[in-house]
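Consider the tokenized backbone below.
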């Protein structure tokens, strides 16, 4: 962690390269074309884009969903490593701090893989080693004998209490929440050292925390946690939903009541026709609402992308937009495999403005 304010000079070369990378993101019209294609046709389309190298590495017989998803993950790693390579001066420090979120995401994949006794190759295909942790290190963690042994081997965060909860409830929620808590505490503290031009980035992080809190409340409400238990998992450092409002949401009778209150606050537009009386219907309503939350976050990220082209916010905005692009492509590919309706898949996509 740095001390004092980071000094950022003018880096025309880096910003020009990022601008070029941003121009190659998949456009909304292209998504409409992809929705009408088969998986093999999608792979062929991607061969004409920034994904060519990764798609070309696939054998003709390896055009299944898992292979294409692995190619997408490899492309994301390549894009982020390229950013670090071209970043000049203290820009690289900021990018590396942001990418610690991939370390947290990868650790979650390792824990989930161990929890579900997943195949080693499958877990490895999920990893996106663009942060501090290498693929080799992450797979060494996965090969530990138990969840407890993995937790003990992670040096930067104390997971003892979370592991105790895991043993009691046989759920990874506490472990994952502890990892998120560590990441957001560290990145928000780091963001204080970014010059004034990075204020928008800090605001984006705080909006991200709002969304994480909302999803946590809705999930735990569905699992019938009481309000005191829910409070333990919340982050009181969001942009819009302050502590008193979070506590009020946690105390509401059920997830549907919380959704109704959140809609009045301007979050999403969950379908009114679904009722909490039926758990599966409530689950569908919550999924719809969470999709609206994802759109809300992208709106915040779009603000980063549209800043002064010589701004750190543009770099961070590109990184988020790239991750959204990967998510959209995976959504289409999985939808094709499951035979989902085109209109349904289109509704699941998130577009940059």
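A designed sequence for it:
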């Amino acid at each position: 962690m740095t001390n004092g304010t980071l000094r950022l000079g003018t880096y025309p070369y880096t910003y020009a390269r990022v601008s070029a990378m941003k121009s190659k993101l998949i456009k909304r019209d292209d998504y409409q074309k992809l929705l009408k294609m088969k998986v093999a046709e999608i792979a062929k389309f991607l061969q004409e884009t920034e994904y060519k190298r990764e798609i070309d590495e696939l054998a003709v017989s390896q055009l299944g969903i898992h292979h294409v998803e692995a190619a997408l993950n490899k492309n994301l790693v390549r894009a982020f490593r390229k950013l670090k390579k071209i970043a000049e001066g203290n820009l690289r420090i900021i990018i590396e701090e942001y990418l610690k979120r991939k370390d947290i995401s990868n650790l979650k994949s390792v824990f989930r893989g161990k929890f579900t006794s997943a195949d080693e190759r499958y877990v490895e295909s999920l990893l996106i080693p663009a942060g501090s942790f290498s693929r080799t290190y992450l797979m060494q963690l996965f090969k530990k004998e138990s969840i407890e042994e993995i937790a003990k081997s992670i040096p930067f965060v104390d997971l003892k209490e979370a592991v105790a909860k895991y043993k009691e409830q046989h759920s990874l929620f506490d472990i994952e929440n502890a990892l998120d808590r560590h990441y957001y505490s560290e990145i928000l503290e780091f963001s204080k050292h970014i010059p004034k031009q990075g204020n928008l980035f800090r605001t984006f992080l705080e909006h991200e925390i709002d969304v994480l809190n909302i999803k946590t409340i809705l999930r735990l409400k569905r699992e019938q946690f009481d309000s005191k238990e829910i409070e333990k998992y919340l982050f009181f450092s969001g942009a819009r939903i302050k502590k008193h409002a979070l506590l009020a949401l946690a105390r509401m009778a059920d997830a549907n009541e919380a959704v109704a209150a959140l809609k009045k606050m301007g979050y999403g537009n969950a379908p009114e026709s679904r009722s909490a009386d039926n758990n599966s219907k409530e689950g569908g309503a919550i999924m719809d609402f969470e999709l609206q939350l994802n759109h809300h976050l992208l709106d915040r990220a779009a603000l980063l992308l549209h800043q002064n082209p010589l701004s750190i916010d543009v770099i961070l905005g590109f990184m988020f937009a790239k991750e959204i692009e990967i998510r959209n492509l995976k959504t289409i590919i999985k939808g094709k495999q499951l035979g989902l309706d085109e209109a349904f898949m289109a509704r699941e996509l998130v577009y940059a403005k």
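Residues 270-281 have pLDDT under 50 and may be disordered.
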